[in-house]
Batch of 2 targets.
Target 1
Amino acid sequence: MRIGCARRLVAAGHTVYIGSRDAERGRLAAGRLGARAVRLDITDDASVAAAVRVVEAEGGLDVLVNNAGVQAEMTDGRVVGAAEVTADVMRRTFETNVFGTVRVTHAFLPLLRRSASPVVVNVSSGLASLARVATSGTPAYDYPSVAYPASKAAVNMITVQFAKAFPDMRINAVEPGFTRTDLNDNTGIQTVEEGAEIIVRMARVGPDGPTGGYFDAEGTLPW
């Protein structure tokens, strides 16, 4: 997903940094796209702080896309349900999806606040919608896991609260759709380019654009 986003933003004229835990893989990916690489482990304070220093030294930041995510409740190739979820699974999922999002956003806030038009895009999920998950007959209703939807619902709340706290920023959550990625063993029904569309669109909103919202490619989603 991040590669599709980076490709389109580079093509639109943006200077794009690709954060990667593996410095060499990040360097190779960035080189193919015309982007810049920065080592970034969003579960590690020191790594995030070092990434901030790199970006600051090279000119600052206008747009932050929080795209990292894990689905820790996989066992034998299947998603486990409520009867099998444990506190450890919840903790591992939240460490990346929730705490990592807060850690990175908090660390980059000083750079964003210097921008003339700062934007934050938090990649959420349709499974974060309580309305959808609670409505029988929808694909979200049939999804059995607990940790991943709960973590993305938390991301939505983080989005709303940060948007209220920083009204000069455009801060939104997006649902890219069921996209073929490593997260779902490439079982998604759309390409990464299709999934990147809403992320790129919200990354490019202007000062008069929406904030504190939850969107997919077709429009506003129910909380």
Target 2
Amino acid sequence: MTANAPHDAVTLSLTEVEALTRSALLACGVDPRNEPAITASMVAAEAEGIHSHGLARLPTYCEHAKVGKIDGKARPVLDSPRPGLVRVDAKGGFAHPAIDFGLPALCEAVKTQGIAALAITNSYNCGVVGYHVERVAAEGFLALGFVNAPASIAPMGGTKPVFGTNPIALAVPRSGREPLVLDQSSSVVAKSEIVVHQQRGEPIPLGWALDKDGNPTSDPAAALAGGTMVPAGGYKGAGLALIVELLAAWLTGANLSIDASSFADNLGRSPRTGQFFIAIDSGALAGPNSNERLERLFGAILQQDGARLPGERRSRAKRRTAAQGVTIPNALFERLQRYAA
């Protein structure tokens, strides 16, 4: 543990983040076979500067495992109802081991079929969606990921939440480089970012969320207590949330967002949400010069002043984290130590 953090914060190396995460999960009843997938995802999130899906979320995971809202010992079950279709039932447990179980089968299916899909059902929060599709792209396939969450976004013209923040992610393999990863929420910001602001005692920017009365708020507590998230781009964000809902919830047989219990509290049973992934052998369609055409597209973006490709900030964050570590509020660190103990 480093000692260069402010007096009310603690700085950890990624090795320390991994050890603390593992200890806390195991102490709260997560099966040793399920823990590695969860820990790896959270360490990757911290490494890329996506703190909302790292240690900031770990207390919730621990609480849900302790009270049984999530079955930390559930073992996923895989089947293939059709060639090119893979399905994994998370059995009310953590999403990460279910996804890790399904991704190899997805990649094998796309090798023979050219295109394949993986449906995860009866699941839970899966962390950073880009983390999962990036691993498929690392195998040489274009990948799409869709994830539903408990309702917090109203439909077009409505006022009551129907959709979750429902993120979507895309990963494209690049020759000799890390895959390009685009990961975005259907709302202006992921709900977990509001949790991070609450933990740090910081206000949220106006325009992120509404309180329970429908008024813009800068108070994270008001946003989380019956408030709603603002969809990205207004109606366009709500439309994107609907697309994700159809693929990640309806198509997988998981709970619709309106039927899923909250990711944020201990009330109710398992959310039993869903994730849906598509993998495509892009080389079979895009042709022999596909890499050159792809880099020409990216070059046209990068040659413009101020323009950048998705994922560049995450790459810079990895280098910064490797050098400086991860800083979290001391209150969060002490809470995680209590779980680990």
